[in-house]
Design brief:
The complex is a heterodimer of chains A (about 300) and B (about 300).
Chain A (H helix, E strand, L loop, with lengths): L1 H38 L2 E2 L9 E2 L3 H8 L1 H31 L5 H11 L1 H4 L2 H11 L6 H8 L11 H29 L3 H9 L4 H40 L10 H11 L3 H29 L5
Helix pairs in contact in A: 1-12, 2-12, 3-8, 3-10, 3-11, 6-10, 8-10, 10-12, 11-12
Chain B lengths: L1 H12 L4 H44 L19 H9 L2 H32 L5 H9 L6 H14 L6 H5 L6 H12 L3 H9 L4 H12 L1 H17 L2 H6 L8 H11 L4 H33 L3
The chains are: A mainly alpha (about 300), B mainly alpha (about 300).
């Protein structure tokens, strides 16, 4: 009898150790995901006393018909494409070009270019709101001095999206550069020596040795940009433009937010959430398959 | 280090005549010198781009209202007026304390729950362990905006709207902490654990008294990462907080911006106050911070 209890206790023990994690993620991540899915078939306004009405696929149908949704998806794509140069291409170039710098200067660069990453997004938004202010912001003062007309970076339809993309990218550029630099520094020197002995040029070494060996980092940061890019921009949209002017800076996640807590149409928000989640999950799946197939690991 | 490598290669090339060799070394060293200068220039530009907005925040916060529109990038007659204004206008000290408390508790819970789960996965194999592990690893695919409505409903049902507890509970677990500590504990020498078990040490004590002290570096960097992330958190408190004195610093900042959006000096002073704790941590622990962010990927 007591032996049985012992065995039972042994089996229970791991569960006690993982209980906080499992319960927390269950209650706050996976259960809500299911609830969101269910909510997407209802019409409801978030007030506890008002009734939920089952509407089937109606929420999805209206979303597909709404131009807002198309606009948001298109902008989500633009955000990703816009962030990409600042989160992947430019940092990769910088890391490759500055690989020979060593010593104390490297540490200082490292420490300073990382600062945007640790500054709170709210502070970042406010900083740029001041720097890019139409009348008195430093950027416009300088533009004025150089003889250009002042630009409403956040107020004009033609500039607002690019401005938010830039701010999102600004926060990431140092981080990505450090990721690539670290990966680049980890490349086994003997490959490069061997290639040089065979008479390979600087560019050939970059193209044939460094880039392939950096491919895991390139894939990782690209995937992060694709999957999380529009989430990173979300906070700046919320604080700086509210999706405007004329919906030019909204994206899929901001739409979820507006439907959910702006116009209190929970069903629409949930349906858009399900679409976003399923869409991005598919993309993640393909990215990971591509990564496993194509990335070159140095074993 | 890189210099050594280059020298070795030059020697290894063994050109036909010694004159040729000298010329080649000379050309190469000029070339390398040029590349180095350009590299420094690129990184220096990047540093300015990354640092200047933060510098401008500090400078603007020290300008009085007459000087705020002065584009001079050095402060002329610095004053702390903006800071006293902010402290009189909003309960910033209270909000900073709230933020500190939330960040401290959240970070401690991340480390503790991560350690427990990491230990369990490394120590035992049990039913569904692989499935649970992959579910934990996949949580980053679920965006906050998709689960926010159900989470909000649950928190309001629990009566935790506008409380600090409501900010902490949904974020008490970090999947990344579980994964990282699992890897670390798996790499821990088996015979040490075995010996302790033979001595009859319980798993709980084994984890806390033998494993935890040896993983100090990982635990500290996880703690810092969680603290900074929690300090900078914006959207969850934005949903939950109603009264300014119950809110965290990021929300206070956002409220302050909405109310007095064009009091640039005061706004910069408030932003500085909110950033100082993070910047101080960064000043002392920059290596730790950079490394823990880089290991965690982007969140």
């Amino acid at each position: 009898m007591s032996k049985r209890i012992d065995i039972f206790k042994k089996q229970l023990e791991p569960w006690l150790f993982i209980a906080p994690v499992v319960m927390s993620l269950g209650v706050w991540v996976y259960l809500p995901l299911i609830q969101e899915f269910i909510l997407s078939f209802y019409e409801w306004n978030l007030l506890p006393n008002s009734p939920k009405e089952f509407v089937g696929l109606e929420n999805y149908e209206s979303l597909i018909r709404l131009p807002e949704m198309r606009y948001a998806i298109w902008n989500t794509l633009l955000y990703i494409l816009g962030i990409f140069p600042m989160s992947v291409l430019l940092p990769l170039g910088i890391a490759l070009f500055t690989q020979n710098l060593g010593g104390w200067s490297r540490d200082i660069y490292r420490t300073l270019i990382f600062v945007p990453m640790i500054i709170a997004p709210v502070v970042v938004a406010i900083l740029w709101r001041w720097l890019l202010n139409k009348d008195h912001g430093l950027m416009n003062v300088w533009l004025d001095v150089l003889g250009f007309t002042k630009i409403g970076f956040l107020e004009e339809k033609n500039y607002a999206l690019s401005t938010l993309i830039f701010i999102t990218g600004w926060k990431l550029i140092g981080f990505s550069t450090l990721i690539f630099s670290a990966a680049n520094a980890n490349i086994d020197k003997s490959y490069i020596e061997a290639a040089k002995m065979d008479g390979a040029s600087h560019w050939q070494i970059i193209y044939n040795i460094r880039l392939p060996l950096l491919s895991p980092s390139i894939f990782l940061l690209s995937m992060m940009t694709i999957l999380l890019g529009s989430q990173w921009s979300f906070i700046y949209i919320n604080i700086l433009t509210h999706g405007g002017p004329l919906k030019s800076t909204t994206n899929i996640y901001y739409l979820l937010w507006e439907y959910g807590f702006g116009s209190l149409s929970v069903g629409w928000s949930a349906a858009a959430g399900v679409i976003a989640f399923v869409g991005f999950s598919f993309i993640a799946y393909f990215c990971m398959r591509l990564m496993n197939k194509r990335a070159i690991y140095d074993n | 280090m890189t210099i050594n490598v280059n020298k070795k290669i030059d020697l290894a090339e063994r050109p036909s005549s010694p004159l040729d060799l000298n010329l080649k070394i000379k050309i190469r060293s000029y070339y390398n010198f040029g590349i180095r200068i350009v590299g420094h220039l690129i990184l220096f530009t990047l540093v300015i781009i990354c640092i200047f907005p933060v510098y401008w925040m500090l400078v603007s916060s020290l300008k009085d209202s007459n000087a705020i529109f002065d584009p001079n990038i050095f402060p002329q007659s610095p004053t702390l007026d903006n800071y006293t204004y902010v402290i009189n206008q909003i309960p910033i000290v209270r909000m900073l304390w709230n933020t500190f408390f939330v960040a401290l508790v959240t970070a401690s819970l991340h480390v503790l729950t991560g350690l427990m789960a990491g230990y369990a996965f490394a120590r035992w194999s049990f039913k569904f362990d692989k499935v649970i592990m992959s579910l934990i690893a996949m949580t980053w695919l679920v965006p906050f905006q998709v689960t926010m409505i159900p989470n909000y409903i649950l928190i309001s049902k629990m009566g935790l709207l506008d409380t600090l507890l409501g900010l902490i509970i949904p974020h008490m677990v970090a999947p990344f902490a579980v994964m990282m500590l699992y890897q670390a504990i798996k790499a821990f020498p088996k015979d040490v654990i075995e010996a302790a078990r033979i001595d009859g040490v319980s798993d709980w004590r084994l984890m806390l008294e033998i494993i935890a002290p040896n993983l100090r570096a990982s635990l500290v960097s996880l703690f810092i990462l969680a603290f900074v992330t929690s300090w900078n958190e914006y959207f969850w408190p934005l949903l939950l907080n109603r009264k300014i004195e119950n809110s965290v610093a990021q929300i206070g900042l956002q409220m302050f911006m909405t109310q007095e959006g064009n009091q640039w000096g005061a706004l910069m002073a408030a932003s500085t106050l909110v950033s100082i704790p993070i910047l101080v941590i960064y000043m002392f622990l920059h290596r730790h911070v950079v490394e823990s962010f880089m290991r965690s990927g982007l969140r």
